[in-house]
Fold each of these.
Amino acid sequence: MTDSAIRPYVTRDTRATALAALTAVDHKTIGLRWIITAFAFFIGAGLLALTMVTQLMQPGLNVLSMEAYNQFFTMHGMTMMFFFAVPIMLGLGIYFVPLMIGAREVAFPRLNAFGYWVYAFSGIALWIALLMGRAPDAGWFNYTPLSGPVYSPGINVDLYALSISFLEFANLVAAVILIITIFKMRAPGMSINRMPVFVWSILVVAWMIVFAMPPLMLATIMLALDRIVGTHFFRIPGGGSSHLWQHLFWFFGHPEVYIIAIPAFGMVSTILPTFSRRRLVGYLPVVLSQVIIGITSFGLWVHHMFAGELSVLAMTFFAASSMSIAIPSGVQVFAWIATIWTGTKLRLTAAFYWAVGFIPLFVIGGITGVMVSAPPFDWQVHDTHFVTAHFHYVLLGGSVFPLIGMLYYWFPKMTGRMLNEKLGKLSFWLTFVGFNIAFFTMHYTGFHGMPRRVHTYMEGLGWGGPMLITWIGAMIVGAGFAVTLVNVFISQASGEPAGDNPWEAGTLEWATTSPPARHNFDSIPAVVSRNPLWYALEQDADATPAAYELPDNDRMTMGTSTLDGEPEQRLLVSDASIQPLVMAIGGTVAFYGALVSLWLVPFGASIAFVSIVMWNWPGRNREKEQS
Amino acid sequence: MSVEAQRTRPGAMDLPLNANDQSAPLWWGMILLILIEVVLFTGLIVSYFYLRFYAPEWPLGGISRPDLLLPSISAVLLFASSAPMYWADSSIKKGNVRNLKIGLILSLLLGIAFLVLKGIEYFGYDYNWATNAYGSITWTIAGFHSAHVISVCLKVAVVFTAATAGYFSEERNLGVRINGLYWHFVVVIWVPLFFTLYLSHYVF
């Protein structure tokens, strides 16, 4: 198992030139870029959080100026939600979905590369603005009229509106690619009820993005128009409505939370069976729960607006629908516990620690979620640290913990080397303990009236003591994540060789080499069970289905039917191209150029148009109708 | 352990290469693009009625409600443009490139005529997007839709050029058909938008 030769860290393209890097389209290259970029943003936003909690450690401190503090909390929220949490899930999907379904590529590799460039450019633009002291400063949900031209003159909020609307291209493109990859490119025999749960969770999330991101794009474009060309959508004196912003934003914003959480459920459902040495308990209820959460999440958004002007009927409806989310969430929690309970020969690896640690944190966050979904309770704690504590339990505990678990789980596949287990467990305990010290205390400060987003507070309010405890916890969390970061750097250079399947897991990504070759699979595997590799162990060699021979030199993969996974066609995968980068540059000119001169908008759009024509122009070989 | 140690079977090479039908990823891509656009337009329509139902009067600020004649003429031209596009699609399915090109040109001309009439209509109004929220939402909806008509016209021009270069045939025409699908979408979405921008003033 450990005898396979260790390949270099990045195996993508044999031509290791700058041009090869700029034209790369391989889903593993692009996926890894999403993952690394997202983690870089995570580190940046985490450092902002540590600075903010230092500012709040004691009353009356002045570590940060008020202006800087506003930019810090806005950028912390924006970066974590828009540039870390969603992109990391999409990046893992882009990297691992083709491997888990036995395909050699995603559906539209060039479009995939375009999505990454858009994501990178919009994030970098915001962080440059922060370094120049001009970052958005009206909060990550950026309520009007505060974010309108009257109360927020200057470039700060312009950058919010333009960056978010530009970024949504990347999310939508990735969602479309993932849906089509999952529907049309699964290995023969992988009917839709044999898909790995992680693939299901990515499918659900991709569909949610299709419905949730356009309203956000619309809202941010309308805000940009209000600010740049003087429209009146959200400006009350001209007949606009600031409530409209809230509706459009939260119609995206609440599904957003589940877009982040559902892949994490998929991750836990992947890690626990592998280390419990048994199939997931309740595959069908778990998958159905994820689908139900995905659909129901579109009927909850108004619970963010309980403190606004609402009818009793609206409040009752949205309170009930919000509480109902607890049911499918609870089904999954019981399925995970049952999987561990009935497991044979548990293997207590670092990945398993992170996945198990997720369960109590998610349950606590879920319980406080049910609490705040009751309007009378919500009015008491609205905009206090209680809410901050609630959503950090759900987002950090419920999403980042499984994510780090998945990093320990999949790092060997990505690099061919194991992460250090001892450092992994040390990192887990530091983070787990520090997290609870920091955020459980914030429930208390919230009950005692400490509001979110205040630059400082006066002495004698009784908040200084608990805030000091929160500061200590936050620093421990920072140290905990730092251990994993160090672990990644050490292990990718000198970790133990991993071999193809170090965890003896059952899904297809472990059937290929670590790291996977350019074409993923030498022949397209045929599948008759949910855990093909375990099936192969349990059955006679003759009972396992034979794989399909398909030459890899033509960049060819297999297209199958949507529900049953019957072979339908061969698909040619498009080759490297510079056009995705050119088109992303054109888009960047069009969007950010609006701040300089509106004439740059048609100019940038023209670049993008020329580029997309060249990109899609029927080529000399057979790849014509693949984009 | 590893699947690759398993037996393999031939036969995959007998499958068609890049199917020219609705199982193609490209077809699915266009369907999803259209779905995303439908969500966007729905958001615009919802925003229109949200602003309208909270407004003291509609249109705001003493603007008179739009006259129906010119918008109706342009709408008829736009709806008519779907017919030659349909004809172009079915021509290339039979391998007739000449009729494909004629159909594309006819649709393109009707699309441009629609844009010209829209321009005449909107630049003839005595309010614009910066006048008030009514101006903002109507100009944005019409402008956003016109931007779609412009882009689909550009797309038709590209398909026409590719057809001239001989890229499409009876066997290979998916590019033409997804272009047609998008054209029909841009036409059909004008039905709810036309109701919102014009007819709704006369209905309630």
Amino acid sequence: MDNLTALLEGFSTVLHPVYLLYALFGVFVGTAVGVLPGIGPAMAIALLLPLTYSLEPTAALIVFAGIYYGGMYGGSTTSILLNTPGESASIVTAIEGNRMARAGRGAAALATAAIGSFVAGTLATVALTFLAPVVARWAVRLGEPDYFALMVVAFVTVGALLGSSVPRGLAALALGLFLGLVGTDTLTGQQRFTFGVPNLADGIDVVVVAVGLFAVGEAVYVGSRMRHGPVHVIPVEKGWRTWMKRDDWRRSWKPWLRGAAIGFPVGTIPAGGADVATFLSYASERRLAGPRRKEFGKGAIEGVAGPEAANNAAASGVLVPLLTLGLPTTATAAIIIVAFQSYGIRPGPLLLQSESALVWALIASLYVGNLMLVVLNLPLVGMWVKVLRIPRHYLYAGILLFGALGSYALNFSPVDVLLLVLIGLVGFFMRRYGYPVAPLVVGMILGPMAEDRLRRSLAISQGDLTYLVTSPFAATAYAAIVLLLVAGLWLRRRERAAEVPQEQSPETP
Amino acid sequence: MSTPGAPGAPGHEGGPTAAATPPRRRWGELVLAGVIAALGVYVLLAAGGITVPGSTNTLGPRAFPYLVGALLVAVGAALVVLVLTGRAGQEEGGEDVDPTVRTDWLSVALLVAALVVHVFAINVVGWPFAAAILFAGAAVVLGARPWWRAALAGLVLGLLVQVVFGGLLGLSLPPGPLLEGVPFLRG
């Protein structure tokens, strides 16, 4: 009951007209940027950070919530209407949604994605509302070694389980850990790896790294092998009557619910966030399709409805460890933590008490943002299609410009922009040679936190290493890592198996 | 082409790119893996030079750098071995990436040049014009024609951002000597 009162207070904040406008602005900008090809939610938030530098915390977090959900929505439009997927979470949607669009059922695909995202997003936000306080209450009792164990779990899942190559993921993670080391050691005040440069004494700003890797690295990489010529966007039939027929509803509602049920739990555990959730949902829809299984790979609506619902439910699930443990499990979450930190807010078990009004306003804005998205998105499809047609040279030039603006606006120092260019080059080479960039961002944020926990643990135990594993929770976490590694390898094999229908399906004549 | 039915034969003479790319790409990838390992060695060596204050009782400021350095060396070495045994990385795809073309290094260099010029132009000509240089430069490198339309778009965008972010949102972007006196551009 306590939660409900707090949530209602959150709503009373968010429903204030000014905040409603901020929420509307957030979802609108988030969707517009998310629709842009090549820009996932992580990049959207990193690029739009400067927008909020001058806002007060509540307004900024409401805008962020909008951008976060909007970016997720926008990605599905891109993958349905363009030939190739944008953010990784939408890849399975691209298989079925793109086939549906080519078969002239693009509007139905967009509608089931949007309504499914709304249904699952709302269900997951309800789950978040009830789960977050419980987890926070439990997390207060966790000790330093328990937190360290949690972070090790996050390192292993983000570094080793995501992406196509384990050593490349670990390399990206290690690079991120190194960048996290640069600066002044918090416990002893010693400078580490600053090369005597005064600008580096405070450490490298995560915003510069995130924008450099996601925006500059991506723009330069695309520039190196640009697809020239006109952009092919699949046309969508007009009029709301074409959105979803009775049969589409009948075939969609169960996948929506199943997607929410799969997505939320997967999002809450450090297991890779939305990617894994969408894939699991796709695989289960395919298995449950019965006689319709042969439609998969040729445009089965279940294959859009389920994964899209799972995607958005996972996006809410990710907020549970983020808000209650301060543990980012995806690159997007890592950047949200940075946004929190820029307001002096430290996510963790005490956040719900110390910043109660703010957190509940954020959660309330998730409900509001979800509703706005479903209302906005379907009628505005025509506009998003126009956004998709932006000439690519202007698109990537604009991405570079806003990336440069974001890092310049941090300290109003050109040195940050120069650092941005350097990190952008690193991002370019990582993309070119198949290194995932997300583990780098997560490693950079989590590295200093993990070091802090480790050293505090050993200070408590006076150097006794067994203290790290003797608490029941930590022991369970390390056992879970072993399980996760086994499960991850199994999942990857399944993923390869799921890719087969896409290759086998005949080309549309 | 001329060499019939020899799978994996290095066909460099402008043949199908799919066959020609792996042997070319491996060098850069090898260098990157080597750089990662070398960075690890550097971290291990430099970590020994971090001052440890006398008050530190258990794990000092050196321990975590040693761990990170060891991880870098290990994965760097593993990647060198992987690349040498022919298991190259799979480059990232994307909507606007053409998988059939080779890397256009000139474009990469020119994009980086546009960014670097932007960095040094901010304090000389002011943010809006430096932004225009970056936008127009990058757009032309990426294929915007005619160039003056890109330049015009860059100028409009630069001024627009200056007005919205500098004037309305209050970021102190320097308007530069040309626009010094204009009140609504002030950060």
